[in-house]
Amino acid sequence: MAMAFAPTLTTAHGPWILVDTDSATLSVMRGNEVIESYPDLAIGRGGVSEHRTRGDDSTPLGEFRVVKVKTESSYHRFYLFDFPNDEHASRAWNDGRIDLATYDTIIDAVENHRLPPQNTPLGGNLGIHGLGGGDPGIHSAFNWTNGCIALTNEQIDALSPWLRVGTKIVVQ
């Protein structure tokens, strides 16, 4: 079952997610306090980037919000976040990686609390997910995603109560 994007966001004091790509750890935070921590995550096989482009398999750095929840997915559970967001669109427009029409479409979606277009030159369909039927050995040895953040199925199940539409995710 999928839940659609809604303008209601979690409160400033609610839990948020910190993805530390250097230590390969995802933490549930409340303020500056770590509530839960999940080690050994996998990111995109292209590493991380502030300038993500479709097909480069990099995980974008920045602040995002969960915009869609898929409790049944080929990746077990999938929490889509709002990429590309206004920050990434502005950077891409300034760098000449997207045209004005694409920039305007992304900004319009962001300002109206809608899912940004997922088919731009920046890519899309990024989020936090499990392995599904994937190989746990590959997961523990390599960054293997197309730009998403992956946990084991057990970890994503344990994380699920903390994730809802509007939850803030910081990838650094």
Could you explain the architecture of this structure?
There is one protein chain. The protein has 172 residues and is of the alpha/beta class. It has a single domain (2-15, 40-167), classed as L,D-transpeptidase catalytic domain-like, CATH 2.40.440. 20% of the residues lie in helices and 30% in strands. It is built from four helices and eleven strands; from the N terminus they run ββββββββααβαβαβ. Strands 1, 2, 3, 4, 7, 8, 9, 10 and 11 form a nine-stranded mixed β-sheet that branches. Strands 5-6 form a two-stranded parallel ribbon. A hairpin with a 2-residue loop joins β3 (25-30) and β4 (33-39). α1 (86-95) packs antiparallel against α2 (100-111). The chain is globular. The two termini are 30 Å apart.
Which fold name corresponds to the CATH topology?
L,D-transpeptidase catalytic domain-like
Q: Count the beta strands.
A: 11
Biggest beta sheet summary: 9 strands, mixed
- Architecture in CATH? Beta Barrel
**Would you list the SSEs in sequence order as H and E?**
EEEEEEEEHHEHEHE
Total DSSP helices: 4
State the low-pLDDT regions, or none: 1-11
* Content-based structural category: alpha/beta
Give the assembly state of these chains: single chain
CATH class division = Mainly Beta
Query: Per the principal axes of the C-alpha atoms, what is the gross shape?
Result: globular
Arithmetic mean pLDDT: 92
The percent range for strand residues is 25-35%
Rounded radius of gyration (Å): 15 Å
How many domains make up the 3D coordinates? 1
